[in-house]
Structure formats: structure tokens, C-alpha cells
Amino acid sequence: MARTKFNKAEISWILYDVGNSALVLLATSVIPIYFNYLAAKDPAVEQVAVGAWGLAETIASLIIALLMPILGSIADMQGMRKKFIIGTVGVGAIATIAMGFPSNWLPFLVVYVISAVMLNASFVFYDALLVDATTDERMDEVSSQGFAWGYVGSCIPFIVCLLVVLNAEKLGLTMQTAMLIAFVITTIWWVAFTVPMLRNVEQRSFKPYEPHAIANAIGGIGKTLKAIWADEALRWFILAYFFYIDGVHTVIKMSTSYGANLGIAGTQLVLALLVTQFVAWPSSIIYGRMGRKYGTKTMILVGVVGYFCITLFAAFFLRTATEFWILAICVGLFQGGIQALSRSEFGKLCPKEHANEYFGFFDIFGKYAAILGTGLVSAFTFLTGNPSLGVLSISLLFVVGFFLMLKVPEHR
């Protein structure tokens, strides 16, 4: 297949994924470990640090879930999408650097919640700009390129940050100073790759300005849900997406914990995480091109089947570090592709002038799914006493998602 040439707007949109992914990777690996380091200074909190971290993540998720359908509706008005990106990235950048200053776990956690909310809120406006940056015909490949370059781009500042943090003592730095440097590096990377999108992507689809926009947005949430439900393609897609993306995020969130439970060394787990990022880079690009050739729906179904097989492998065969590396490679093959094509498929299905409003609901599932999956893993593990059966239960989500996805019409 001939190589696609991307225009300035498409390249600029893709680059934002490169920028924000650095903070995403840091937030899923180093930041939780640093929080445990701060919590260990307080004997009263040390034993419940995991619970405190989980509560912070839940609070951030709830804030996003409550705000984004409302803010998304307002952002659909002319010229508002980029203004919301400037606001969320700006506040998020300040909060991210500010995480390097608290020496106590509680203020650190408060600032982290602000950073997490701003980062994930920016995704909604960014995803909606996809419909302005490119056309329906090119959406699969552009979306896939975003995920692909985000994976590899995130590794550059992450590796630098990791070297600073792991060698803090040799460099004559305290852990707090080392983390502050890591937060500054990550923030500069995020902001730098936001600028091209702000300069080169124009909001071409919008709805007219509305007086009393906030009140109308709140009242319009139910209307939007009814509109999604009334549209056959959107209805079946969003139901299918809810199940299979929940399974995808459960695999992401639980794999490290499961590996540690099997006695696999932490160093092996972190290195495997990096392997996933590098494998996902070319895989996402290939996936996008295959989506254009064979159809977006077909390739999403292939990804769902791939993840179903991954859960079977994890449940029945994963026992050693070598097998965990195999799992990491397999996840990398499908992770970016299934997320990218899901984003582009939704962008093609939803009305362009209400893209932010619709993506507000889409991103609640896409960024914070893993409710059913983690619940299933916990329930089956506690009931059977066997974590492998808990992992196997995730496969149910992919089965349901697969059959619901079959109901999505092939064409509008």
C-alpha cells in the first residue's frame, strides 16, 4: 500500500498525542510509586496507600464523568474547542510541575487529581478536533498515527525521567528534586507538542452560539443520550465499545498487578511496559492502513478476538517473566489499533457539529472503562481463590463486545 502523505493539520493533530502520552506513561508507572514513597513517611497512611491512591483516581474519574458532557456541549460552539484545550493544558501543566513541591502525601494527591482531570479533559477536546483535522476517508489512518507516535514519543522523555529518578543518589539529588525534574521535563514535552495543533488545526464544524450555554448543556445531556440511542449505528457501537474497551483497559490496569502476584520482578514488569510501547508504534500504523483496506469494523473485530486470545494466554499459560514479555508484545500488537479505530469509527458516526458533545460520552468509556472488568476479576478471584480464573473472566467482556459489534451497520 502506498504511503499516505499527511497535511499540516493532520500532522499537528497527531503531534498532540506525542506530547500528552509522556504524562500518561509517567502517571501509570512512576507517579504511583512516588506516592507510595511519600505515604511511607506517614505510618498512619502507609498501610492504606493503595486505597488512598484508588480513591484519588476515582475522584478524578467522577469529575471527568460529570463535567465532560457539559463542557463538551459548550466546546462545540464556534471557536471554543481550542480555547478549552488551551485552558486544560495550561492548568494541567501548572499542576504537573506543582506535583514536585509537596513533601506530604495529601497535598501531592490533591495536585495530582487536578493534573489528571486536566489531562484527561483535554483528550475530549482533542478527540473532537479529529473531525476538523481530517476527512472521514482518512480518519482511520490519522487516528492510528496519533496512537502510534504517542506510544514511541512518550518513551523519549520517560526514559530520561527514569534515568534521573533511578540515579538520583548518584547525581546528588533528593528523590523530591529528581521527581520535580521529571515533572518539568514531562510538562515541557506536553506543552511543546500542543503548540502545532493550536496553530494549524481550525475548528471547521460547530453549532451556533447559544445564550445560557451551561444551562442548555446540562439540559441537553438527556437529549444527547436519546439521540445516540435513536441512531442504530451509534447505539450498537457504543454498547459494543463499552464492553470490549472495558476489557482492554482491564488488561492494561491489571497485568502488572497480576505479574507481580506471580512473583515476576518489578524491573521485568517495567521493561515489558516499554516493550509494549515500542511494539504498539508500528502496529498502530499498520492497523490504521488495514482499517482503510478491509474496513474499520472488521479490524475492530479482529482486535477484539486478539484480546480474547490474550486473556486465554494470561489465564492458562502466563507463569514466568518470559511469558509476561510475550504477553506484553501481544498487547502491543492490538492495543493502539483497537483504540485508534474505535475513535475514528465514532468520529465518522457522530454528527460533526456536535462532536465534542458526543465525544464527552465516548471518552468516559474510553478513558475510564475497566469498571466491569476489574469487578469481574475481583469477584472470581475471591470466589475461587484462583487469580487465573479472575483473569479468565475478562474474556466474557470481549465475547459480549464482539457480538454487539456485529450488529453495527456496515454503512450509514
Question: What does this entry look like structurally?
Answer:
By secondary structure, the protein is mainly alpha-helical. Helix content is 81%, strand content 0%. It has helices at residues 8-28, 30-39, 43-46, 49-75, 80-98, 105-133, 139-166, 175-192, 195-200, 213-230, 232-261, 266-294, 296-316, 321-349, 355-368, 371-384, 387-392, 395-405. α1 packs antiparallel against α8 (175-192) and α2 (30-39) runs antiparallel to α6. It starts with 7 loop residues before the first helix and ends in a 7-residue tail after the last helix.
Task: Please give the structural blueprint.
Layout: H1 8-28, H2 30-39, H3 43-46, H4 49-75, H5 80-98, H6 105-133, H7 139-166, H8 175-192, H9 195-200, H10 213-230, H11 232-261, H12 266-294, H13 296-316, H14 321-349, H15 355-368, H16 371-384, H17 387-392, H18 395-405
Relevant terms:
globular; 412 residues; Growth Hormone, Chain: A; mainly alpha
Oligomer: single chain
**Got a strand count?**
0
How many helical stretches? 18
Please state the average pLDDT score. Answer: 83
